[in-house]
Amino acid sequence: MDLLNTLVDKGLRREPLSRAEALAVLGTSDDELLDVVAAAGKVRRHWFGRRVKLNYLVNLKSGLCPEDCSYCSQRLGSTAGILKYTWLKPHEASEAAVAGLAGGAKRVCLVASGRGPTDRDVDRVSDTIKAIKDGNEGVEVCACLGLLSDGQAERLREAGADAYNHNLNTSEATYGEITTTHTYADRVDTVQKAHAAGLSACSGLIAGMGESDEDLVDVVFSLRELDPDSVPVNFLIPFEGTPLAKEWNLTPQRCLRILAMVRFVCPDIEVRIAGGREVHLRTMQPLALHLANSIFLGDYLTSEGQAGKADLEMIADAGFEVEGTDQVTLPRHRGTAAAGEGCGSAESAGCGSHAGGGCGSHAEEGAGAGAGCGSHAGGGVCGSADRAPAPAAATPVGEARTDLVAVRRRGAGTDLAPNA
């Protein structure tokens, strides 16, 4: 396809795509899918080789969020049966982080539900950052705490934070349809505050909330303008008990096209597959590694993810390698905003479900975690070693699939060992 040859050339030269070209990627057919993956894979390998960066989420405070983000299991009014607990102590968070680092994670994403941190919360998280860094040489720490007030990003940077995650989630035009307790502009402001403080900015999106192709392109172009080091791509995890519980709009093929579009638009930026990959990509997850250069290891904020051992086997079987702490994630020309890398949205999420902002920020929970940090992160899903594989067929729109979403019952906030 002439289009794909053009997009590869632009990606290798870091030349911006047009909106029409980005929309064309999303509009390709299933028959063209492998060609799209192969083309975007050339761009991914040019800038990131075959390295896969592993990120690990620690949910510092779960549930009881005053924000009304429709995708989030921790939202105001959610009846999802998730774990609910207040702040972990620094040593508890550090112990949780060690499990992920032992599994190969390079970055720890510290996520807390809520609109945004108080100054006391920033002190608490600062102590946690120091506890993690004192015991683990070379670890990167990303914070995802929601909307930041003036001076808070600087304080986190002084405490040793490398990055800050806060997802945009969706287009500005449709943002008011998923959240009413804060604005799209609030999120942009927090990403800019992180940038200004010298933190590596991490900001991503949630796909699968009923948005159009135009909405997806809008948010990715907006992210490109913000110039984050990392873009977590979360796939909505429709938690029962949330307004979007029946939004099962994604297929594995759709997810791959979205990741390819993000890679072409952001060729030299860390693209992270955050919350929801196990639910929506399922057996096609290895193909996604040809598009993204970063994933979350193990569980998400409020939902289970694939077993950490299975993640490592998948990476190796697909011909990729885990990025080491002695390797720099971003291409040299991007410089090092903080200690050098982009964060990671997830829960639905980024970091996470949120591979993205916290509740209130929690751009991820529900999205899949998030995560990307963040809200990362949201939710992960099933895919544990003892769980039957998900069916390959797409879920009919409007039907709930409680069998694909498993609430996290281990790790942070419990007495059980974490999944890493």
Walk me through this protein's architecture.
With 420 residues, the chain is an alpha/beta fold. 32% of the residues lie in helices and 11% in strands. It has 13 helices and 10 strands. It has helices at 2-13, 19-26, 33-48, 90-102, 119-135, 152-158, 175-178, 184-196, 213-226, 252-265, 277-280, 285-288, 308-317, and strands at residues 51-61, 107-112, 140-144, 163-165, 200-202, 205-207, 230-235, 270-273, 294-296, 321-322. Strands 1, 2, 3, 4, 5, 6, 7, 8, 9 and 10 form a 10-stranded parallel β-sheet that branches. Helix 5 links the parallel strand 2 and strand 3 (140-144). The protein is globular, with a radius of gyration of 18 Å. Residues 337-366 and 368-393 have low confidence and may be disordered.
Task: For the structure shown, list the relevant keywords.
about 425 residues; alpha/beta; ten-stranded parallel sheet; about 10% strand
Architecture blueprint of SSEs:
Blueprint: H1 2-13, H2 19-26, H3 33-48, E1 51-61, H4 90-102, E2 107-112, H5 119-135, E3 140-144, H6 152-158, E4 163-165, H7 175-178, H8 184-196, E5 200-202, E6 205-207, H9 213-226, E7 230-235, H10 252-265, E8 270-273, H11 277-280, H12 285-288, E9 294-296, H13 308-317, E10 321-322
Parallel strand pairs: 1-2, 1-9, 1-10, 2-3, 3-4, 4-5, 6-7, 7-8, 8-9
Helix pairs in contact: 1-3, 2-9, 2-10, 3-10, 4-5, 5-6, 9-10
